[in-house]
Amino acid sequence: MPTTSSAPGKVYLFGEHAVVYGEPAVPCAIERRATVRVEERDDGRLRVSAADLSLDGFTVEYGADDGVPNVDVPTALVEAAMGYVDAAVASARDAADRPDAGFDVTIESDIPLGAGLGSSAAVVVAGVDAAARELGVELAPETVAERAYEVEKAVQSGEASRADTFCSAMGGAVRVEGSDCRTLDAPDLPFVVGYDGTSHDTGDLVAGVRALREQYDFARDTVESIGDLVRRGEDALREGDVEELGRLMDVDHGLLAALGVSARSLDEMVWAARDGGAAGAKLTGAGGGGCIVALDRDDGAETALSLTPACEEAFRARLADEGVRAE
Ligand SMILES: Nc1ncnc2c1ncn2[C@@H]1O[C@H](COP(=O)(O)OP(=O)(O)O)[C@@H](O)[C@H]1O
Ligand SMILES: C[C@@](O)(CCOP(=O)(O)O)CC(=O)O
Ligand SMILES: [Mg+2]
């Protein structure tokens, strides 16, 4: 019998990148989910079918004996796409003490891939949960979050925060500062997302910020300023002060741009959203291309984004109360 789990993507209200260096961040889970179906197979092989909105559906099959993917899409693309899934399956094998378990894995996701909405975290969280349950082990969402964090850290060359994975596992709005991870009471904020249709590599962008931080004190100061801003933002979130949240999002976008992780398309979408009346707008996630998030109370920003050439798709994103769940 196959076992299926799903987990949500997220937007960052504030704090991405700085959270990697121990500053606080507030990501919010959104109602776009990745669904992972897992069925144990008795030959020890791993077969993965991934259908995604921005990558043609593909299937990879390989076993411990050869390790060679059998597919007809470019190897680099496959390797990039498989890193997270492979490591998620390995984590579940470890949790169940079944190092040789083989699986058929099928992934479906309505989270654009590599666009800052946490598709990697959602796939890993749902994958660890489903594969562990398929092997008879029920993990608490907090445990799934911690295992998924270890996976992201390993795949992103040792650089990741707990923010995306904790948010995806727990749902709702969360606050992450180092290893201190908490869920927050938050109102359903009027998020609208603008997506430029491109993707980024989170590991590369995080490495770029690290290099800048090592070279320039101003980059260290910028990371600390993002932390200060997040602490101010927490008060505004508690009070449901959308105007102040928007102002702080605008500043956060400027600080992220100073760290070199914005892009022309992201800046164009941010300005379109502001011109359309958003309370504030910023890139979300690693940046470099992908998505922006804006606070849009009256649909003006969503309309402005949908009319902006840089924006391929604009959509509303409701807060997802539920994190990882069995389907
Ligand atoms: N539907 C999917 N099927 C298989 N792998 C996926 C899917 N969605 C995301 N991934 C994995 O997540 C990676 C993208 O993660 P990342 O660069 O962190 O961007 P983000 O988390 O912002 O979407 C992909 O290269 C792939 O390994
Ligand atoms: C840049 C970072 O703060 C968030 C990355 O988010 P995403 O993978 O682009 O959705 C990295 C991290 O927290 O691990
Ligand atoms: Mg990611």
UniProtKB/TrEMBL annotation:
<keyword id="KW-0418">Kinase</keyword>
<keyword id="KW-0443">Lipid metabolism</keyword>
<keyword id="KW-0414">Isoprene biosynthesis</keyword>
<dbReference type="Pfam" id="PF08544">
    <property type="entry name" value="GHMP_kinases_C"/>
</dbReference>
<dbReference type="InterPro" id="IPR036554">
    <property type="entry name" value="GHMP_kinase_C_sf"/>
</dbReference>
<comment type="pathway">
    <text>Isoprenoid biosynthesis; isopentenyl diphosphate biosynthesis via mevalonate pathway; isopentenyl diphosphate from (R)-mevalonate: step 1/3.</text>
</comment>
<keyword id="KW-0808">Transferase</keyword>
<dbReference type="GO" id="GO:0019287">
    <property type="term" value="P:isopentenyl diphosphate biosynthetic process, mevalonate pathway"/>
</dbReference>
<feature type="active site" description="Proton acceptor">
    <location>
        <position position="164"/>
    </location>
</feature>
<keyword id="KW-0460">Magnesium</keyword>
<dbReference type="InterPro" id="IPR020568">
    <property type="entry name" value="Ribosomal_Su5_D2-typ_SF"/>
</dbReference>
<feature type="domain" description="GHMP kinase N-terminal">
    <location>
        <begin position="86"/>
        <end position="172"/>
    </location>
</feature>
<dbReference type="InterPro" id="IPR013750">
    <property type="entry name" value="GHMP_kinase_C_dom"/>
</dbReference>
<feature type="domain" description="Galactokinase N-terminal">
    <location>
        <begin position="4"/>
        <end position="37"/>
    </location>
</feature>
<feature type="binding site">
    <location>
        <begin position="112"/>
        <end position="122"/>
    </location>
    <ligand>
        <name>ATP</name>
    </ligand>
</feature>
<comment type="subunit">
    <text>Homodimer.</text>
</comment>
<dbReference type="GO" id="GO:0005829">
    <property type="term" value="C:cytosol"/>
</dbReference>
<keyword id="KW-0547">Nucleotide-binding</keyword>
<dbReference type="InterPro" id="IPR014721">
    <property type="entry name" value="Ribsml_uS5_D2-typ_fold_subgr"/>
</dbReference>
<dbReference type="InterPro" id="IPR019539">
    <property type="entry name" value="GalKase_N"/>
</dbReference>
<keyword id="KW-0067">ATP-binding</keyword>
<feature type="domain" description="GHMP kinase C-terminal">
    <location>
        <begin position="235"/>
        <end position="303"/>
    </location>
</feature>
<keyword id="KW-0444">Lipid biosynthesis</keyword>
<dbReference type="GO" id="GO:0004335">
    <property type="term" value="F:galactokinase activity"/>
</dbReference>
<keyword id="KW-0963">Cytoplasm</keyword>
<comment type="similarity">
    <text>Belongs to the GHMP kinase family. Mevalonate kinase subfamily.</text>
</comment>
<dbReference type="InterPro" id="IPR022937">
    <property type="entry name" value="Mevalonate_kinase_arc"/>
</dbReference>
<dbReference type="GO" id="GO:0005524">
    <property type="term" value="F:ATP binding"/>
</dbReference>
<dbReference type="GO" id="GO:0000287">
    <property type="term" value="F:magnesium ion binding"/>
</dbReference>
<dbReference type="GO" id="GO:0006012">
    <property type="term" value="P:galactose metabolic process"/>
</dbReference>
<dbReference type="Pfam" id="PF00288">
    <property type="entry name" value="GHMP_kinases_N"/>
</dbReference>
<dbReference type="InterPro" id="IPR000705">
    <property type="entry name" value="Galactokinase"/>
</dbReference>
<comment type="function">
    <text>Catalyzes the phosphorylation of (R)-mevalonate (MVA) to (R)-mevalonate 5-phosphate (MVAP). Functions in the mevalonate (MVA) pathway leading to isopentenyl diphosphate (IPP), a key precursor for the biosynthesis of isoprenoid compounds such as archaeal membrane lipids.</text>
</comment>
<dbReference type="Pfam" id="PF10509">
    <property type="entry name" value="GalKase_gal_bdg"/>
</dbReference>
<dbReference type="GO" id="GO:0004496">
    <property type="term" value="F:mevalonate kinase activity"/>
</dbReference>
<protein>
    <recommendedName>
        <fullName>Mevalonate kinase</fullName>
        <ecNumber>2.7.1.36</ecNumber>
    </recommendedName>
</protein>
<dbReference type="InterPro" id="IPR006205">
    <property type="entry name" value="Mev_gal_kin"/>
</dbReference>
<dbReference type="InterPro" id="IPR006203">
    <property type="entry name" value="GHMP_knse_ATP-bd_CS"/>
</dbReference>
<dbReference type="InterPro" id="IPR006204">
    <property type="entry name" value="GHMP_kinase_N_dom"/>
</dbReference>
